[in-house]
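Morning F.,

Quick status update on the modeling queue. The single chain you submitted on Monday has been processed. Sequence for confirmation:
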Amino acid sequence: MVGSKHEAMHRLFQSHPEVFGRAFAALGLPFPDPTAVSLLPNDLTEIDPIERRVDTLLRLDTDEGPFLLLVEAQGKGDPKKPAAWAHYISHVHAKYKLPPVLLIVCQDVATADWATGPLCIGPRQWASLVVYPLVLGPHNVPAVTDVCIAENDIPLATLSAITHANDSGIGAILKTLATALQSIDEDDALIFAELTELGLGKGPAAKTWRQLMSVDLSFFRSETSQRLRAEGEAQGLIRAILKSLQARGIDVGPETRERIVGCSDPEVLDAWLDRSFTVNSAVDLFGP
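Structure tokens below.
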């Protein structure tokens, strides 16, 4: 059964298949940007009663010709998968008469190493079939921590957050994405926020994301986001800190509020924002 992380992954590629090309451009793989995308049926079952479904199957038309993109989210190594993937590839190639590309998306390096293969099918003396998936994971998807980069490529920033869910630096990635979402339309921002939460699953990163969203969802209203862009980075951070403390029910006294509002250093404000999600009193923002 497709879980929430799988659901988020294939919804992202269905809605923004161009993220595939951009993610691999950094690796020097020559996939052209799609000029048209078609979502194809993902049921690959034949007369054989075994049900087989690829997470997502897309037809990508490019200036260099069409190809098929099969997307699978993989949480861990599974000895049954190579045979299933080989079936997917051969079946869609025979059915659509187009070259297929199998893309596996992982959240940890060990699974990515396993999925990269080559995955051999046949006796050890001679492999009759070898599967070479393309793999996206924390080892090759950039950790997007620059707000400007995230604002210019929200889908890639979302993929970065999902694939780096188990990294120690996920907090900075999520905070960058949350800030970038303030720069786009409210409805689009809410969609990407939902995709991110689904893709993160139930781990600590998801809790951090929900804390960020408890503050930032109010920023997605058009008038507020326009005002924040005009006020600049420092003012946006100040508002985020105060809203975070307010959402957690932490009282902010006049002197503490004056110190927060009077600060114009984005790096200092950024550190205070990080602490605002865990401190027990507003004064603790400022550290020892």
